[in-house]
Amino acid sequence: MLIYLVEPGDTIDSIANIYGGNVEEISYINQIPYPYKLAVGQAVLVPGGEERENKRTATASGYAYPFISPWVLQQTLPYLTNLLIFSYGFTTQGDLVPPTVSEDWMLLEAAEVGVTSVLVLTPFGEDGLFNNQLIHAILRDTEAKNHLIQQLQDLTNEKGYGGVDVDFEYILAEDRDLFTEFVAELRASMNQQGKSVSVALAPKTSADQMGLLYEGKDYRGLGEAADEVLLMTYEWGYTYGPAMAVSPLNKVRQVVEYALTEIPSEKINLGISNYGYDWTLPYVRGESKAVTIGNIEAVQIAIQNDAVIQFDTTAQSPFFTYTQEGRQHEVWFEDARSMQAKFELLTEYDLKGIGVWQIMRLFRPMWFVYADMYYII
User: In whole angstroms, how far apart are CA 85 and each of 34, 200, 346?
Assistant: First the structure.
């Protein structure tokens, strides 16, 4: 695949003529709706060139809620190794709490195409937010913890899950070692059944990094305790923060380089953000709130507002600004260029694969770029 940057006056027909392709194929790959309008600066993925030399294998995992569109899931499954179904909670007694919408149909869809389904375990409270007191309680109650592990073993066998992904956030510093022990115990139980355990890691850049997101996660210990890990390398730009790239490459690289000092590269999956944000300016801390948008939606917003898409070479991320109803907006999102830059880290650092948060919106160019760079296993 090749990446073409749209210039003033370009049309999808002129791009197709340049590369000898056809409009239907280019519009399909890039999800460009009729009448095929383009934004200046837009990255358009086109077929062309030769297969990459020394193309290596890599895995691909994607998180999804049970209310994902069946069409989106069907379009995405051919590119996945693992489907991470979000999510099961639990009580302080260790009883599993299923998602409000049954995931059984997703398990069937994944099984039909040979994709492994993974149960995502999260400590959600009644308010639907991560609850570190729930984590604290379960880690310090041996009977409840063992009951939870047994429930996970029973449920994964019953439903055909291939493993468990532990996504605990805001772990108290005092619970750090107990959390590592829990992951190790869960892995021992799951491995006996031929199943795996992965754990999601907040994006640390040093062992002693301060903050509620980081202090409860021991990279070295969890790297040893789990079969594999996911680096959550996203959310630098986030809903309540100032406008900036969601996954700036320079920041992502710092996390990867630290992780490699603690965890074998073959256990590391790189987190990939499949979304963007639209901020209304000026940013006011405590008041501003960005709107989450899809990457295809971002381009449509640029087209509707005659905005020129720019590219930050440090963050390796596209962005643009526009004015609507007298208010200035700033949008950061992902495109084929930013995805390619992040995917190249797998080869540079010999990582296992990627984990996409999340696949609820289809972004076909991402998968075409990844499949062009790696054999997905």
Answer: 33, 14, 24
Please say whether the beta carbons of 351 and 268 come within 8 A: yes
Burial class (CB in 10 A: 0-12, 13-18, 19+), 228: buried
CA distance 142 to 45: 53
* Whether 87 contacts 117, CB under 8 Å: no
Q: Tell me, what DSSP letter sits at residue 308?
A: P
User: In 10 A of CB 100, how many CB atoms?
Assistant: 9
What gap in Å lies between CA 82 and CA 120, rounded to an integer?
A: 12
Could you give the CA distance from residue 194 to residue 371 in angstroms, rounded to a whole number? 28
Residues acting as catalytic residues: 169
Answer whether 237's CB lies under 8 Å from 249's CB: no
Q: What is the pLDDT of residues 36-79, one digit of tens each?
A: 999 999 999 999 878 888 899 999 999 999 999 999 999 999 99
| Residue-level pLDDT at 341 | 98
d(CA 196, CA 33): 41
Q: What is the mean pLDDT of residues 21-49?
A: 95
Q: What is the pLDDT of residues 87-105, one digit of tens each?
A: 999 999 999 999 999 999 9
Identify which of 160, 162, 170, 167 has the alpha carbon closest to the alpha carbon of residue 136. Answer: 170
107-135 core/surface letters (b: 16 or more CB in 10 A; e: else): bebbeeeebbbbbbbbbbeeeeebbbebb
The burial class, CB within 10 Å (0-12 / 13-18 / 19+), for 39 is buried
Q: Residue holding tokens 């379960």?
A: 138
Per-residue pLDDT at 230 exceeds 80: yes
pLDDT digits (tens, 9 = 90+) for 306-341: 999 999 999 999 999 999 999 999 999 999 999 999
Secondary element (H or E) of residue 118? strand 116-121
Q: Which of 1, 10, 79 minimizes the C-alpha distance to 45?
A: 1
Give the count of alpha carbons within 13 A of 5, CB side only. 8
